[in-house]
Design a protein that fits this description.
By secondary structure, the chain is an alpha/beta fold. The chain has a domain of 121 residues: Rossmann fold (3-Layer(aba) Sandwich). Helix content is 50%, strand content 11%. The protein has eight helices and five strands; from the N terminus they run H-H-E-H-E-H-E-H-E-H-E-H-H. A five-stranded parallel β-sheet has the order 3-2-1-4-5, with helices on both faces. Strand 1, helix 3 and strand 2 form a beta-alpha-beta unit. The relative contact order is 0.15.
Length: 236
């Protein structure tokens, strides 16, 4: 019994030590630009290209609407739809078909229409509950010779492309939904700009950057975990 208790305590000590080390490391890295670059380095494609022209633009839904990521994906989907006017748009997001008009899926479609996309171009995939099942369902809807453009977050582009390729699609591209950049000097008064050492409330790095960068770190770690799981399941 004592031996078992000792082993249990050792495991707990090791687990807490690793957790503490990771937490300290993440906080330390949040004071650098590495999380920002790690988040954006995962983006497969930096911009929508003219060639090849996609047949299908797939909006990979993300969270409730309105939301920062869902709005970003609507924005980039609409940009792609205007750039490639012949392409069909598929909104891939689960929905209760019995109450469709009150669903986030329906609101995504309405947002695209508000951005000038004709409703006749918009199709729905409502049964997939993750990237894999969405790819499976869209494969059932279309043949593999279609050219796809996936609209999703930068960290998700690799996994989404590989998942659709695993379903047999030969030409799969992605548009990462990269947010705009704001000059941090806009948050400083003229006096603050002249001070070499700034107080915490006048330091944009402490006020904004470290918190945003920690979110980037979490997003990257989550995606790496998801990629590992998809590889184990054979989805990629």
């Amino acid at each position: 019994m004592k031996k078992t208790l000792h082993i249990f305590r050792s495991i707990l000590f090791f687990a807490f030590s690793i957790t503490g080390f990771v937490a300290v490391l993440m906080i330390a890295l949040s004071f650098t630009s590495w999380p920002y670059h790690a988040y954006h380095w995962t983006n497969y494609f930096d911009e929508i290209t003219d060639e090849p022209n996609p047949d299908l633009i797939i909006l990979m839904g993300a969270g409730g609407f309105p939301g920062s990521e869902s709005l970003l994906r609507c924005y980039y989907t609409a940009e792609a739809a205007h750039k490639f006017p012949v392409a069909k748009i598929i909104v891939a997001f689960p929905a209760d078909t019995a109450d469709f008009r009150n669903s986030d899926h329906y609101l995504l479609i309405e947002e695209l229409k508000q951005r000038g996309i004709d409703s006749s171009r918009i199709l729905s995939e409502v049964r997939g509950h993750n990237t894999y099942t969405q790819a499976v369902n869209i494969r059932k809807m279309f043949t593999t010779d279609h050219i796809l453009l996936l609209v999703t977050s930068p960290v998700h582009t690799y996994r989404s492309i590989k998942t659709f390729e695993k379903q047999g699609f030969k030409n799969v591209y992605a548009q990462g939904t990269i947010e705009g950049y704001t000059d941090v000097d806009l948050f400083l008064s003229e006096t603050d700009k002249q001070n070499k050492i700034k107080s915490p409330d006048a330091n944009p790095g402490l006020r904004y950057n470290i918190w945003s960068f920690m979110q980037y770190e979490i997003a990257v770690l989550r995606e790496w975990t998801a990629i590992g799981w998809y590889k184990l399941k054979g989805y990629l």
